[in-house]
Design the sequence.
C-alpha cells in the first residue's frame, strides 16, 4: 500500500489528507439526532483514540474549531505524547471577542483561520470586509500563519485579486448560502436544511487552481451525503484530488463508530494520489 503523501504548507508540510472535527464534536450538518449520536459517542477517550489512529496512518494535521472541549482534547493528546499538528478554526465569537486570537496562538497552531461561514462569508455578504481584514491582521501579529476559510468562491477571488495578507485558504467545495438562495429563487421558499449543489464544486476547484497559495478543500463528501458506497467515496475523493492542485490537501471529518474510517480513508487517498502521480 502506498504511503500517505505529504505536501508543502507554507514553510512546513502536512499530509494530503487532514483530519476534521465535525463528527468528533457533533456538528453533523445533517440533523440533531445524528449530531447527538456523534456527541455522545465521542468521549475524550474516543477522540484521543481517533487522533492516535490518525497519526498511525500518516495523517499529520488536525483542524478543529477552538472551544473548551476541543482544546482539552488537544492538550490531553499532546500530554500523552501525540504529535499531530493543529490547525485552528475560530468560532464566530472572534468577531466580537478578539482575545480569542491570542488565546489560540498560545496553543501553538500551525495556522489560524476565522470561521468560513460564521465570519468570512458573513463579513463578505454583509459588507464588513474591514472587520474580516482586521481579524486576519491580528492573526498575523501573533506570528502564526494566516488562513482564510471560505464557502463562497468570490471571497477567495477577492482575496487573491486584492493580494490580501493570507498564507493559505480553506476552500469549501459547496457554497451553502448560494445554494439556499438558488433554491429559494426557484421554489419560492427556503429549504428545510442545507442544500449541496454539485455544480458548485467545479467553480471552487477552478478558483483553487488559480492561486499559488496552499489550499485545503473541505466538504469533500458533502457532509456525509456522498458516502453511499465505498466506490462513491473513492469517486468523491478522486474528484477533489484531481481538480485541486497536486500540492493541496483535503480535509475530511471521520469517526470510528462503524469501522476504521481513518485507516480506510488514508489508504484510499494514498492509493488515488499514487494513481494520479503515475498518470
Sequence:
Amino acid at each position: 500500500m502506498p504511503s500517505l503523501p505529504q505536501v508543502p504548507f507554507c514553510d512546513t508540510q502536512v499530509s494530503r489528507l487532514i483530519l476534521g472535527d465535525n463528527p468528533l464534536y457533533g456538528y453533523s450538518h445533517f440533523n440533531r439526532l445524528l449530531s447527538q449520536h456523534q456527541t455522545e459517542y465521542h468521549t475524550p477517550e474516543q477522540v484521543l483514540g481517533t487522533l492516535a489512529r490518525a497519526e498511525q496512518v500518516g495523517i499529520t494535521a488536525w483542524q478543529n474549531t477552538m472551544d473548551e472541549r476541543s482544546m482539552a482534547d488537544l492538550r490531553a493528546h499532546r500530554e500523552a505524547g501525540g504529535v499531530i499538528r493543529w490547525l485552528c478554526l475560530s468560532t464566530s465569537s472572534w468577531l466580537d471577542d478578539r482575545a480569542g486570537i491570542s488565546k489560540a496562538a498560545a496553543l501553538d497552531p500551525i495556522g489560524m483561520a476565522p470561521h468560513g461561514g460564521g465570519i468570512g462569508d458573513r463579513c463578505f455578504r454583509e459588507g464588513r470586509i474591514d472587520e474580516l481584514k482586521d481579524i486576519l491582521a491580528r492573526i498575523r501579529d501573533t506570528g502564526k500563519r494566516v488562513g482564510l476559510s471560505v464557502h463562497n468562491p468570490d471571497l477567495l477571488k477577492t482575496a487573491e485579486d486584492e493580494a490580501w495578507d493570507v498564507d493559505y485558504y480553506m476552500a469549501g467545495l459547496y457554497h451553502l448560502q448560494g445554494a439556499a438562495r438558488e433554491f429559494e429563487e426557484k421554489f419560492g421558499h427556503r429549504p428545510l436544511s442545507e442544500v449541496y449543489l454539485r455544480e458548485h464544486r467545479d467553480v471552487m476547484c477552478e478558483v483553487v487552481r488559480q492561486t499559488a497559495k496552499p489550499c485545503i478543500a473541505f466538504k469533500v463528501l458533502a457532509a456525509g451525503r456522498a458516502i453511499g458506497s465505498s466506490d462513491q467515496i473513492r469517486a468523491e475523493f478522486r474528484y477533489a484530488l484531481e481538480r485541486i492542485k497536486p500540492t493541496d490537501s483535503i480535509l475530511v471529518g471521520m469517526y470510528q463508530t462503524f469501522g476504521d474510517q481513518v485507516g480506510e480513508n488514508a489508504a484510499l487517498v494514498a492509493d488515488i494520489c499514487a494513481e494520479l502521480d503515475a498518470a
The mean pLDDT is 96. The radius of gyration is 18 Å.
